[in-house]
Each structure stands twice: as structure tokens, then as C-alpha cells.
From TrEMBL:
It is found in: Cell membrane. PANTHER family: GNT FAMILY GLUCONATE TRANSPORTER, HIGH-AFFINITY GLUCONATE TRANSPORTER. This is Gnt-I system high-affinity gluconate transporter. GO terms for molecular function: gluconate transmembrane transporter activity. InterPro entries: Glcn_transporter. It is a multi-pass membrane protein. Belongs to the GntP permease family. Its main location: membrane. GO terms for cellular component: plasma membrane. The chain crosses the membrane at residues 26-45, 57-76, 96-129, 136-154, 174-197, 218-243, 255-277, 298-317, 337-365, 377-400, 420-437.
Length: 438
């Protein structure tokens, strides 16, 4: 009954957005309220769950997306994106530009959360798309596959790191196994799968489109790369700080503050305001206008993501994840497969990879000890399951859809299937490794 209710709400959401043409934010609010009532949340607490879900997800992403949009706009209008695209193509050739972006996405994805990596890399993707008139989905999706794989498989990302702790696995071993699985998953779900997506029409978000400037007006290559990638550099530096064995609590607090993604984005934007703005002859009035335009362009995206957060919170608050897990526990499946199945079904039902992973971990944890299952592989199996079939109840789905300006149908054909490929390839990889390790 619970699964039927969730399925009904998801179908209702899709019909409201695609058939009735209701604004996605309003559709999310309506469906969230309906879901809360049908799943037994007291009527006086439904709106509180909706508000909490919106606040939780915007609290994480609002500053990052807004500052990221401002930085991306500045990178675009200053000509830095044009310069970066030109340098990349000169280095690897237009034929291999997709692979260059995949490698960049993988390197960047290791230290960065998915949402941050997405916001930072979108301007680079679109600069290549606009300059060389290439299909946006074909060029962009493989890089996003890299970000997704690192988010689901590799520590130090939150979900795999938490699973390592829960299963008492070894962080380094999990990372090595995850790396072995990640490479074929990225290749197959990225560049190989993208070969079938060249005809998907896409007019990416206008905020990252800028007029092509003559070569003499472009910023230098170092300035362009350094400024665009400064958030990545700062986050990587703070990520490696714990390994320096500096025990001064004052220094640790300062590094922790400076390593917060919101502070990193603010620092990067301030630096870019000088290096790509004032230094290039723009005044603060012009820059302020560009920043305002950037925020206007992502305002609807923020509302849609808030709506997806409301829907996720209603499903979580109703306790459906526990009910689903309890029903699946009776399945007579091998533990590694069971972990993947539980995580995948909760992911499809609730939309949150982290909730799916942690819920599945709580269910299968006793089986890991009883059956002497390799805990490192269980981390990766659940991590793979938690990425399965991202769709309309996942904020990542809407982030991709709105930035790339796609229909729901084309988003499912590209994004949802890419995530599912990553998930299934991850399970296959875990199964193969399990044949050779004990």
C-alpha cells in the first residue's frame, strides 16, 4: 500500500508538470501535501514537514547555487569560459574534448560534493557547447557521470564515508575498490552512453551564454583557469589539511571555516570580481548588473529544488523508508545484492541517495557480521544502489533538467538512465570483485 501511494504521488507530479503544465514548484507543493495526508502525517503537521524539507535543502544549496551562478556569469561574460574552452580544445582536439571534461569531472568530483561540483562545472560545459556548437547533453552528461560516481562510491563523500564507519570498513580499501569500479562505470555511463544522446535538443541556461569576444580582449589562460577553478583548489586544500597532522585547535577552526563551501564560493567570487571584472576594465555597476541577472536566471531552479526537498521530507517524515525496508528484509537474496536492492528501492521512492544508503545500511548491518561479508564491498553495493534511477523526487534531477533546459521525457532518457547505468555497473563491479577477495 505504501509503495502504491508513493507511485501514485510520483505519477501525479509528472502529470501535473508535463501534461497540465503546472509550474513545477506549485506541483511539488500540491503533491507534497497530498502525499503527507495519504501517508498518515497528522493534518496539522503536513505544512511543517513541507517547510522543513524546503528549509533543509535550501539551507545547503541556496548560497552555493546563487554565488555559483554569479561566478559562472562572470566567467562567461569576461571571456574566461571562451578562453578555457579554446585551451582545452587546442590541448586535446575537439574530437576528445568530451574525454577531457570527463577527466576534469572525476578529479574535481573527488573532493567536492555533487551539487557544488555541478554548479562549478556547468559554465565550463556550456562554454564548450556554445563555442563549438556541440550537443549539450552529449558533452555535459559524461562529466556529470563522473561527479555522480565519485559522490556515490568514493570517500570522503558523506554517504560512503558514513557507510564505512557503520560497517567498520577500511577507508583506503573502500576507496581502492571504489576506484576500480568507478572507472568502467564512468566510461560506460558517460561517453559510451552519451553516443546515443546526440539528438536530444537542449538550449542550456541563458545565464552562461555570452557573446564571443575577439582574442585580444580575452583574459589570460592562467587567469581564466585559476579563477574558474579557485573553489576547487580551496576545497581540495582544506580536504587535505587533516593529513598534515597539525593539532593546533585554533588553526583547525580557521581551516574549517575557510573550507565551508559557502565561504569558499564567496572568496572565489570576490577574487573573480577583481581578476575577471575590475582588472578587465569593468566597473562595479556593470558587475552588479551581471550578478543580478545570474540570480534571476536561477531563481526558478531554487524554487523547484525547494519543492523537491519538501516532497522528500514528507516521505521521510511518514516513515515509509522503514516500512519499505521491513518488507524487503524477508527477501531471500545474497547480502550484497540485498543491500543494493533495498538502497535502490528507497532511492526510487524517496529521491535521496543519502537517506537510501543509510537506511539500507541499518537493515543489512547484522547480515554483514553473520555472513562474514566483506564490509568494503557492502559499502560500495549500497552506494551503487543509492544512485539508481534518479527521477522527479530528486533535486539532482531538477538541477540537471533546468540548467540544460530539457523536457521531463528527455531528462529521464538521459539523466535517469545514466544514473541507473552507474548503479547497475556498480553492482556488477562489486559482484566481480567479491569473487576474488575474501
Amino acid at each position: 500500500m505504501v509503495l502504491l501511494t508513493i507511485l501514485f504521488c510520483i505519477v501525479l507530479l509528472v502529470l501535473l508538470v508535463s501534461l497540465v503544465k503546472v509550474n513545477p514548484f506549485i506541483a511539488f507543493l500540491l503533491v507534497s501535501i497530498v502525499a503527507g495526508l495519504l501517508l498518515g502525517i497528522p493534518i496539522n503537521k503536513v505544512t511543517a514537514s513541507v517547510q522543513k524539507g524546503m528549509g533543509d535543502i535550501l539551507g545547503q544549496l541556496l548560497i552555493i547555487i546563487c554565488l555559483g551562478a554569479m561566478l559562472g556569469k562572470l566567467v562567461a561574460v569576461s571571456g574566461a569560459a571562451q578562453k578555457i574552452a579554446g585551451v582545452l580544445v587546442d590541448a586535446v582536439g575537439e574530437k576528445y574534448i568530451q574525454w577531457a571534461l570527463v577527466v576534469a569531472g572525476f578529479i574535481i568530483g573527488i573532493p567536492l560534493f555533487y551539487g557544488i561540483g555541478f554548479v562549478l562545472m556547468v559554465p565550463l560545459i556550456f562554454s564548450v557547447v556554445y563555442k563549438y556548437k556541440l550537443p549539450a547533453v552529449y558533452i555535459g552528461l559524461p562529466m556529470l557521470a563522473s561527479l555522480s560516481v565519485t559522490h556515490g562510491f568514493l570517500p570522503p563523500h558523506p554517504s560512503p564515508s558514513a557507510l564505512v564507519a557503520l560497517f567498520h570498513a577500511n577507508m583506503a580499501t573502500t576507496f581502492i575498490y571504489g576506484l576500480i569500479i568507478a572507472i568502467p562505470a564512468i566510461i560506460l555511463a558517460g561517453p559510451v552512453f552519451a553516443q546515443f544522446l546526440k539528438k536530444i535538443p537542449s538550449e542550456p541556461l541563458a545565464t552562461f551564454r555570452a557573446e564571443e569576444l575577439p582574442a585580444e580582449k580575452l583574459p589570460g589562460a592562467f587567469n581564466s583557469f585559476f579563477t574558474a577553478l579557485l573553489p576547487v583548489l580551496l576545497l581540495m586544500l582544506t580536504a587535505f589539511f587533516p593529513y598534515l597532522n597539525i593539532k593546533d585547535p585554533g588553526v583547525s577552526k580557521v581551516i574549517s571555516f575557510l573550507g565551508d563551501p559557502s565561504i569558499v564560493m564567496l572568496i572565489a567570487l570576490l577574487v573573480a570580481t577583481y581578476t575577471l571584472g575590475i582588472r578587465q576594465g569593468r566597473n562595479m555597476g556593470q558587475l552588479a548588473g551581471s550578478f543580478t541577472d545570474a540570480v534571476k536566471d536561477v531563481a526558478l531552479i531554487l524554487l523547484i529544488i525547494a519543492g523537491s526537498g519538501a516532497f522528500k521530507e514528507v516521505l521521510t517524515a511518514s516513515g515509509v523508508s522503514s516500512q519499505i525496508a521491513a518488507q524487503l528484509q524477508s527477501f531471500n537474496l545474497p547480502p550484497l545484492l540485498l543491500g543494493w536492492v533495498i538502497a535502490a528501492i528507497i532511492r526510487v521512492s524517496l529521491g535521496s541517495a543519502t537517506v537510501a544508503g543509510l537506511t539500507a545500511a541499518g537493515i543489512v548491518a547484522p547480515l554483514v557480521l553473520q555472513n562474514h561479508i566483506n564490509p568494503n564491498l557492502m559499502v560500495l553495493s549500497i552506494g551503487a544502489g543509492s544512485l539508481a534511477f534518479s527521477h522527479v523526487n530528486d533535486s539532482g534531477f531538477w538541477l540537471y533538467k533546468e540548467y540544460f533546459n530539457l523536457s521531463i521525457k528527455d531528462t529521464i532518457k538521459s539523466w535517469s538512465l545514466m544514473e541507473t547505468l552507474v548503479s547497475v555497473i556498480g553492482l556488477v563491479g562489486v559482484t566481480i570483485i567479491n569473487l576474488f577477495v575474501k
